Amino acid sequence: MTLESQSSDAMGWPSHGGQGTALLQRFGLPTDHGYEDVSANLNPNGPPPWVAGVLQERIAGLSRYPAPDYAPAREAIAAQNGVQPEQVLLTNGGAEAIFLAAALHAGGQALILTPSFGEYARACSAHRLEITSYPLQAPYFTCEPATLLEQAACVDVVFVCRPNNPTGTLISLDTIKTLLAHTQPAGTHVVVDEAFIDLSLDEEALTPLLAQYPHLILLRSMTKFYTLPGIRLGYVMASATMINRLAVYQPPWSVNHLAAELVPSLLADNAFAEKTRQWLTSEQPRMNRELLALGLEVVPSHTCFFLVRPGGVQQRNGISSALLFERLLCRGMLTRHTYSFTGLEGAWLRLALRDKDANNRLLKVLNDCLC
Ligand SMILES: Cc1ncc(COP(=O)(O)O)c(C=O)c1O
């Protein structure tokens, strides 16, 4: 068990988002207490409406094993990202990609930027990596390159989440390039989790850097953008050599037939991508402004969620994040607590961006809870 899950378990907080039943119980609320889920960072525009029909059409294929190389899916991903199919490994969600990256470095040393997604630490612990943390700096979780480079030189692998969950911050392209140049001679691998890059306002995916830096490993999830957490789709992009090394650790047929069949059609759905972009471009800055106007402290976010806490410039009666979480839940809004994130220890709440009406409902309830 990692330090993160230990601490969250010890406090009785579930270690992931959602999990409303456990939280209702924790706060003594009835099991039928209604709530909206503001804790899950999923694109509210999805899944694309045609997905159910395609799954239905392809259901007969469940009686056969999927082709183990998932060629059509990998070719579609490669074409979209401007890499070769040999540079793509299809995975059972972004989570499997994280565990494969950890498996590749089993028994070694890992540097993890914190606060960040807890599965890096869990995967590293599962594969006996010794973990060092690089704490992102106050007040808004920025990265100070000199210290990062110093620490990165001493490990086998660095895990970076970009944009970062739960802060929504984005390490600059320059810092990433410096990190890559600095780690190349020592052979330190740099794993960048881009699970939210297609839900980022300043989308600057690192794919073009793969040609120059063979020690770069990019992890992607198709869960967030396409609102398909149940289908389990993700992938890794890296050099062909690195992909072969990672594939050794992947169980055969790790991605099911229905998931693999969806990939080319999902990537071809330009109308869905455009609708999502329009929503993000209008709702993200608007919510940022509105949350600030409520007097909350808001970490500058580059993506579809916000890390907030009471106590901004127009602080109102100084309530804690824990109390705000409880008030919101009582009034039917389930937000993401941050007890399970090393370096946050519950001091902040994470709010997912949803559609305009849902965002407005949250603002109204927040306003009531802050009064
Ligand atoms: C940063 C990050 N990476 C990866 C994942 C896992 O994604 P998936 O559901 O595709 O396994 C998550 C899920 O919350 C995440 O936040």
Please characterize this protein's 3D structure.
With 371 residues, the protein is an alpha/beta fold. It folds into two domains: 143 residues, Aspartate Aminotransferase, domain 1 (Alpha-Beta Complex); 217 residues, Type I PLP-dependent aspartate aminotransferase-like (Major domain) (Aspartate Aminotransferase, domain 2, 3-Layer(aba) Sandwich), CATH 3.40.640. The chain contains 14 helices and twelve strands. The strands form three sheets. It has a seven-stranded mixed β-sheet, sandwiched between helices. It has a three-stranded antiparallel β-sheet with strand order 9-10-12, covered by helices on one side. Strands 1-11 form a two-stranded parallel sheet. Helix 7 packs parallel to helix 8. The longest helix is centred in the C-terminal third of the chain and has 24 residues. It is globular. The N terminus is likely disordered. Pyridoxal-5'-phosphate binds next to helix 5. The site of pyridoxal-5'-phosphate has 12 residues, from helix 5.
